[in-house]
Specification:
- This protein is an alpha+beta fold.
- 31% of the residues lie in helices and 16% in strands.
- It has a 4-stranded mixed beta sheet with strand order 8-11-10-9. Strands 3-4-5 form a 3-stranded antiparallel beta sheet. Strands 1-2 form a two-stranded antiparallel sheet.
- Strand 10 (165-170) and strand 11 (174-176) form a beta hairpin.
- Helix 5 (182-195) packs across helix 6.
- This is Endonuclease.
- Keywords: Endonuclease, Hydrolase, Nuclease, Signal.
- One of its GO terms (molecular function) is endonuclease activity.
C-alpha cells in the first residue's frame, strides 16, 4: 500500500516547513469564515491510499467535496488572501500578467483586477451561485483587460502575444498562460473535474482533448494540461495558496498540488 506523502506547510511569508500536520497560516481568517483544525496530511488522503484511476478519482472527490461554500462576495476576500503578494501584503499578484497590484484596485475598469474563472463558468453554465462558480481553487486575480482576452477560451499552446500579460499567448479558440503558471492552471482544471462530478445539482465537469468546447461542461486541451502539470511542478507560492484556502476559507485542498503525480494516474 502506498503511503501518502506529508504535505509541506507554507506559512504566510512563503517559507516551507516540513511538518507532520497542516497547521493554520499566521494571518487571521476574515469575517464569515473559520480556521480549520490542524489535520495530519496522511489522514487527509488516507482513503485515497493505494488507489489509481477511477477509484482514486472517486476517493478524492469524497475527500474534497465537504468544503465550505462561499458567496460570490466572499470570493473577493478569499482572493485577496490567497493571491497576496508575499513581498507586499497590500497587493495581489495577477495570475496571467504576473503584476503586483493593490488589493483595493479591484473592480470593472480596464486597469482594475477582477475575478478570473480559470474553469470558465460558461463551460457548464454554472454561474456565480455558491458552488463551482465561487470555488477559490480556480478563482484568481487578473487584470480586467487580460481577463477579457482570455474570455472563455480553452487552454492550448500557441497564438499571439497578449497585451499587458508578457509570456501569454492566445488565438481564436485557446489561451496559453505564461510558463510560471502553466502547471497551476492545469491543476486548477483537474481539481474542478474531480470536485464537480454531476452530483449536488452541479454539472459534471471533465477536461477533454478539444478546444472550442463552447457551453459543454468540458475544457481542454487535456494532453497539453497534463504536459503543463509535469513541466511546471507546484512551487511554494502555489502550496501556500492551497494552505490559505484550506485553513481560512473552504477547508478543502487541491489534491493535485499535494500529489501532482495523481494527474497522470487519473487522466494519463
Amino acid at each position: 500500500m502506498r503511503t501518502a506523502r506529508r504535505v509541506p506547510v507554507v506559512l504566510a511569508l512563503g517559507a516551507v516547513v516540513g511538518a507532520g500536520c497542516l497547521a493554520p497560516v499566521a494571518s487571521a481568517a476574515p469575517a464569515g469564515t473559520t480556521s480549520a483544525a490542524p489535520v495530519d496530511a496522511g489522514d487527509y488522503y488516507r482513503d485515497a491510499e493505494g488507489k489509481t484511476g477511477a477509484e482514486l478519482k472517486a476517493a478524492l472527490h469524497t475527500i474534497i467535496s465537504t468544503n465550505t461554500k462561499l458567496t460570490y462576495d466572499q470570493v473577493w476576500d478569499g482572493i485577496k488572501a490567497a493571491d497576496e503578494d508575499p513581498a507586499n501584503p497590500a497587493n495581489v499578484v495577477l495570475i496571467y500578467s504576473g503584476r503586483s497590484q493593490a488589493k483595493t484596485a479591484n473592480g470593472g475598469d480596464p486597469d482594475d483586477w477582477n475575478r478570473e474563472h480559470v474553469w470558465a463558468k460558461s463551460h457548464g453554465d454554472f454561474g456565480t451561485a455558491p458552488g463551482p462558480g465561487t470555488d477559490l481553487h480556480h478563482l484568481r486575480a487578473e487584470d480586467v483587460s487580460v481577463n477579457g482576452a482570455r474570455g472563455n477560451k480553452d487552454f492550448d499552446n500557441g497564438g499571439s502575444a497578449v497585451d499587458q500579460a508578457p509570456g501569454n499567448r492566445t488565438d481564436d479558440d485557446s489561451f496559453e498562460p505564461r510558463d510560471a503558471v502553466k502547471g497551476d492552471v492545469a491543476r486548477m482544471i483537474l481539481y474542478m473535474a474531480v470536485r464537480y462530478d454531476g452530483t449536488e445539482g452541479y454539472p459534471d465537469l471533465e477536461p477533454d482533448d478539444s478546444v472550442d468546447n463552447g457551453s459543454a461542461p468540458a475544457i481542454g486541451r487535456l494532453s497539453v494540461l497534463l504536459d503543463w502539470n509535469s513541466q511546471d511542478p507546484p512551487d511554494a507560492t502555489e502550496q501556500h495558496r492551497n494552505q490559505v484556502i484550506y485553513d481560512q476559507f473552504q477547508h478543502n485542498r487541491n489534491p493535485f498540488i499535494d500529489h501532482p503525480e495523481w494527474a497522470g494516474s487519473i487522466y494519463g
